[in-house]
Amino acid sequence: MFGASGYIGGRLVPDLLEAGHQVRVVARNPAKLGDRPWHDDVEIVRGDVLDADSTEQAVDGQQVAYYLVHSLHSNDFAARDRQAAGNLSSAAESAGLRRIVYLGGLHPDTDELSPHLASRKEVGDIFLDGPTDAVVLQAAVILGSGSASFEMLRHLTERLPAMVTPQWVHNRIQPIAIRDVLRYLVAAASFPAGQNRTFDIGGPDVLTYVEMMRRYAVVAGLPRRIVLPVPVLTPWLSAQWVNLVTPVPGSIAVPLIASLVHEVICQEDDICELVPDPPQGRLHFEQAVELALTRIGQYRVTTRWSDAGWPHDPSQPSAADPDWAGGTVYEDLRERHSTASPEQVWQVVEGIGGEHGWYSFPLAWVVRGWADRVSGGVGLRRGRRDPYRLHTGEALDWWRVEDIERGSRLLLRAEMRLPGRAWLELSVSPGVHGGTCYRQRAVFRPHGFAGHAYWKLIAPFHDVVFGGMAANITGAAERAS
């Protein structure tokens, strides 16, 4: 499987295992999957679908390849996706695979598609035109805890009791619950030979986006939302509004909204001949929303849209490594002794961010987060999946958990927009005379003159930001002891 670290892939792996399949997972950085509950039940190999040789090695000896990859964050996403799909198609022929399974986007029969939707269609066409049978499932809005589409819908509805909306909110959409998407994906591995085609997949309801917002409000117990459509909001302007109001950044909001400019409803329901509906039927919109909100309330969101990282080459050494010797690096180092136990200090460290905040000058973090969102970055709104436990590879506000040694070390890599690359390392160890030694290290590797100027500009605020963080983290641990 390619894309196991993403939203769909991370949920599909355990379902495939439960169905009795042996699963090989391909990852550019296998360490990112170290905390997944299914880690010990699958074979994990290092590979990159953009590299033809590693793709051939990854699929060697396999029967079915799942392709759940999409280059949303790259400016040249279409070329990258085209290359990756071509690599897999060629590798599948060499390895003698029975089938490629791809999850694409539901789209109308027109040449006037958005760039991202056109790219997803192109990837599906590459697989269908290749020598290996391909099952291309095409879905519109996927409803599930942690999906980008659901998070956009949830935050728009909850935060805006009245909103001015573009005309596309009256286009018809056929959403589908993540549970039904996974059921179709698992079944696709066992389809009869000779199936080389697309299948439209959707739930039982066809709704406009306005109806989805109003029905969501009913399920969530919110007052009726007031919607005032106007003709002047383009998809791009709509995406900027989503970028400011919801946790979904502009780079993801743009393709999501661009796909909704068209009516996205199923043109056929042929998949039901191969995968009959369960006795209770496919989940209706209200059922899917209720299940998603229940999982969010119980902190049982197994994967999120933000699990797929922003561009980063895991093969490059990190400037946060102790033996780094790759050029200029700025560092802010803080150490404090705490009377609390290492376990108590670690509990505060692992709970950092999200609803708990960053223990330092909240206004500065909020302003910096807004500035990042306005410039097209991820900002602080991504939050965290679980308020108390972190996992390698997951998003934490504008950071990514690059490494975690539970109980002793947390390494975060910055994903906000910066003229360089930055890390934040938080370490906990027993004190020499009891208590705890807390160590905090901020590392910045500048890019060009702008990077050096940036560090010099913010350096005067480090005592307040980083010094305050160290004092407040140890203080919080002591108050809880």
TrEMBL record:
Record lineage: Bacteria, Bacillati, Actinomycetota, Actinomycetes, Micromonosporales
Annotated organism of origin: Actinocatenispora comari
Ranges annotated as spanning the membrane: none
Renumbered residue ranges of the record's region Disordered: 307-326
GO MF annotation: an example: protein-containing complex binding
Domain NAD(P)-binding: 3-111
InterPro entries xrefs: ComplexI_NDUFA9_subunit (IPR051207), DUF2867 (IPR021295), NAD(P)-bd_dom (IPR016040), NAD(P)-bd_dom_sf (IPR036291)
Protein name per its UniProtKB record: NAD(P)-dependent oxidoreductase
